[in-house]
Amino acid sequence: MDQLPAYIKICLFVSLTAACLGFACSANDVAASGSVIHEATKDWIFPAAGTISDTFNTRYGTHKGLDIAGRYRAKVFSAQEGTVTRSYLSASYGHVVFIRHPSGYETVYAHLAGRAVRAGQHVEKGKVVGYMGSTGHSTGTHLHFEVHNGPWTPDKKNAIDPFLIFGPGAPGQTVSANAHDPYGVFDASTVPQPVAYTVKKGDTLWNIALHFHTSVGRLKSWNKLRSDRIMAGQVLKIKNE
Hints:
Elements: H1 6-40, E1 50-54, H2 58-61, E2 66-69, E3 75-77, E4 82-90, E5 94-100, E6 106-115, E7 122-123, E8 128-132, E9 142-148, E10 159-160, H3 163-166, E11 174-175, E12 196-198, H4 205-211, H5 216-222, E13 235-237
Antiparallel strand pairs: 1-2, 1-11, 2-9, 3-8, 4-5, 4-7, 5-6, 6-8, 6-9, 9-10, 12-13
Helix pairs in contact: 4-5
């Protein structure tokens, strides 16, 4: 490095600085995007009861939805009000329903045993849109649920992780339908009520806010934080408001 001409050293320094700035901006964009998604979908409900059998971006990044295994012909509900854009029998999705929501998001309910709505129909949040099944490219009874930030496209470029809306879960975890919190965390008897929270490795302000049913803005205000950066071991005040 010491033998390189000065102008090459300058070019390398500029390139490395730009790369670091780009990485930092990207991380901030992801955090901001998560907050926007959470705010826009805070009143959505989970579409089906059962057990999580697969998650977003598995199968080498090709699985762009969340799979919920459950009882054959269990009811499947619309996550939010909207208009049915498609309702048909697909070779891959099987019986499938697409719903466009006023916020611009589009949800997909696939591998249904049967459909209960038609294209062009307006549906309310919680409307039964179909029944859990195993049609199309499916190896067992389950709902394949997708969320798209914008319209569905064949390459699924707008697909987002449903865990950004409902909070993180894991395969094997039991989930309930018709509630924003499918894991039961926010039942009156189970809402955590601490006066302080110790940050764990991997925590973000967004997932801490989601866990305590508050907002990132409140967390920052309560703890006089100027940025979204937190560190493991840091103690945050949690107020009961």
